[in-house]
Amino acid sequence: MLKEYPATKGWISFCCKDNMSIAHGEHFSKVVMNCLQANPVQILAVGINCCSPKLVSDLITSLEVDIPIVTYPNSGEKFIPGHGWADDQCQPLHSFKVFGVSVNKKKNDDKIKRLLIDNDALRTENLSLSFEISKLKKDNGKLKDENFSDYLSLMRERDARYTLYFENLSLHLKLKELDNGMSQPMAIRSDPTILRIALDRCRKQLSSTQSELKSMKEEYAETVPRRDFEHLEGEHQELQTQVQHQLAQYEHLQSTYRKVTAHKNSIEEELMECRERCRELERAGTPRPPWDLCADFIGGGKKRWCQLTEGLSSRDKLRALLKELGPAAESEHLEYFDGLGTDPAVPPYLRYSGRVRNLRLSRREVRVVVNDVWRGRPHHPHLALQDFVTKYFEDRYQQSSVRAEWAYNVCAGAESMLDEPQVRVWWGALHGQLSEQVYWGLRRQWDQLQQHLRRQALDGETITIEEFERVSRSIFPLKSEVDIKNLTDVVKKQLKIKLNCNEINLDKLFYENEEGFDRVELARELFRQRQLGQDKYIREVVAELGGRRAQRNVTVDALKRAFAIVDPAIDHVRMEQYIRWAFSDQSSEISAISPLSLQNIVVRLAAGDIERVGPRSKGVRRNYNKH
């Protein structure tokens, strides 16, 4: 069974009936040998269990192999069938040498603990003795050094005594030579003892002098002469002074550089603010018109026009021009609007009786109000846009006359600013001509692009132009390379990026003022491409329906089929949204919606948030431009 589990190891234990055989009758040692020969790798030990303790020793002795033994015999009793457990008349279990380990375990543990404590004490004592030996060795070294210095001093004293002795002897010889002639000094000179001593002394002095000369040569081989050293030391001090002076100048220049850099940054910030203010003034300001051209439309020509406008301001010139062009330009009509009354057919935000003062709002003021309306719109999604605009003016202006002034002036300004996409979308949604989702779809694209670009930027602020193009392709997989290139060119133009610069500042790119995000050039380019893509998408759908010249009504099933062919990736939820918008029916069962003319379907699709989900299959593409 063990061989079926190669990774498992274990031991085999036998229940034995006597000191030679197992309970089944086989010889114990032979059975063990057969088991080990059959599986020597997985069998770790052999065991003896459930037998009298007095049999265990003989069974272990009978084994002919060296293998670990596991034994767990009875406690010294035997089982008699029908009677139960009875005394086996053998010695207690703990009296056997084989099983004495567990009995004496506690004593051995105590002894081991004592030995460990003694070992720790001896180790501590050994460590202290080692420190003491080290200290004694250090003291012994000091004593050796002191004794050696004493020895050297004694040797020098001995040499000095020799020197004095010979010098004294030499003086005596000279003195005697002067006093007594040449007889006695010659005798002294011929004394071999004196000469031998003098010769030994000379040899020793020569040897010591040579040794000192050699050691001095070795010691001073790389030594610089004092004169050169003093000269180099002076040059070093001079260079040190120059270095200190240069460091002081460097610190001064660093401080000046930091101040200049801070001043430069502040000037750049002021320049950016000035440029922004200039752009605001350019957008909000009104260019001075060429008034001389108005003379061509006035009776009497240039001469009469000069008489009418001499000394007048631009506003007065405009009034004079409008007065000459027709009766509708009277000052009465320029200063006030006529209220539309309170009829239910009048939009709720324009219900007012009486005259309304013309505030002459600038284009910027109209854009600010429109953006403020869009910003508050998500908080009241259940209200229709006209009702929300009414609530918007009611919350801000308590007096009905002031509320009517702002409502009428904003609407008049918006109607005159339909050339701007931002105002055109708001005005169309307000009058039910466009879906609000046109604005929110553009807003989702803007936020999605900004989030992905900021995640791509390592510092959260700047990315390269190549990274911008790569992120744009991943977010807008249906855009062509031309569209991506146009987005990149718009970004470069908006941020005024130079040719040698490759970085895009995301804070500047996605900066939104109070006029809204769709005033940014990048947002306008996204809106333009979105509109072009929608127009192309609708043309393909119309082509599948038979073309604009087809004089027939379009059913829900036909429109479904056209969408499925043109946009195979469209899901059922979005298709149902598009169909309900095209048929202007949000509540009926989709199968019960009545057919509409193709012209009405096209107008409704063009006014909605209709966007392609995926590419069209190449096998079913048609040349829809022919229709």
Automatic annotation (TrEMBL):
A GO molecular function assigned to this protein is: methyltransferase activity
Q: Which UniProt keywords apply?
A: Coiled coil, Methyltransferase, Transferase
Give the superkingdom in one word.
Eukaryota
One GO cellular component term noted in the UniProt record for this chain: cytoplasm
Mention any Pfam family matching this sequence.
Answer: S-methyl_trans
What stretches pass through the bilayer? none
Identify the metabolic or biological route this protein is part of. Amino-acid biosynthesis; L-methionine biosynthesis via de novo pathway
Chain ranges of the Hcy-binding domain: 7-77
Q: Which GO terms describe its biological process?
A: methylation
* Coiled-coil stretches noted in the UniProt entry, renumbered to this chain: 199-284
The name under which this protein is listed is: Hcy-binding domain-containing protein
